[in-house]
Backbone:
């Protein structure tokens, strides 16, 4: 298994749209398992392929406490949605920030599994919000797109600053030029 690099907001690559998947082969299975490992390692509950710079319609989700109930969603599509709720969301691509977003409490959606078999599923609460959040990623959309521009810009600035500080080791701290 390989850990994948997660893109961080405001990286424009997060605006890529995922294309539909047609090849249900070993490469897809490997990619899905690498994404799952990457998500578990980062303590996430959901990760979309676009977040690891793969513009395809693939999502991994595991909202279980035990971290052993993975869901692999290929080409997911929401068919019905109802009952608006407000949910405090975070995102592995927006580390350290959480904001309230309006979502649907109940959804009915279809997806294909890693063998290409189509399934229909109902979801409620956290799982429903997670599926909506991850499908947004496949359309190049982030939860921060739903908050005010002022908050969004502040978040972008803080993430950029944090990442500058984490460049290891910083050139200017190296006492000589290699
Ligand atoms: C999307 O998000 C989600 O800031 C998945 O420092 C979130 O897995 C759906 C995470 C909330 C529904 C509700 C975020 C981990 C993980 C961070 C995640 C962080 C470490 C976010
Ligand atoms: Co996210």
Residues:
């Amino acid at each position: 298994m390989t850990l994948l690099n997660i893109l961080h907001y405001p990286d424009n690559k997060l605006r890529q749209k995922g294309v539909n998947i047609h090849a249900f082969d070993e490469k897809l299975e490997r990619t899905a398992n690498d994404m799952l490992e990457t998500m578990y390692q980062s303590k996430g509950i959901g990760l979309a392929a676009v977040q690891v710079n793969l513009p395809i319609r693939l999502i991994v989700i595991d909202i279980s406490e035990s971290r052993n109930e993975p869901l692999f969603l290929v080409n997911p599509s929401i068919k019905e949605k109802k009952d608006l709720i407000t949910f405090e969301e975070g995102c592995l691509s927006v580390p350290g920030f959480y904001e309230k977003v309006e979502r649907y409490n109940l959804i009915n959606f279809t997806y294909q599994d890693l063998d290409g078999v189509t399934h229909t599923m109902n979801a409620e609460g956290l799982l429903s919000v997670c599926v909506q959040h991850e499908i947004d990623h496949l359309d190049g959309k982030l939860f921060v797109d739903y908050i005010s521009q002022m908050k969004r810009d502040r978040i972008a600035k803080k993430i950029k600053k944090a990442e500058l500080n984490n460049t290891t080791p910083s050139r200017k701290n190296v006492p000589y030029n290699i």
Q: What stands out?
A: The domain at 12-164 is CATH 3.90.45.10 (Peptide Deformylase).
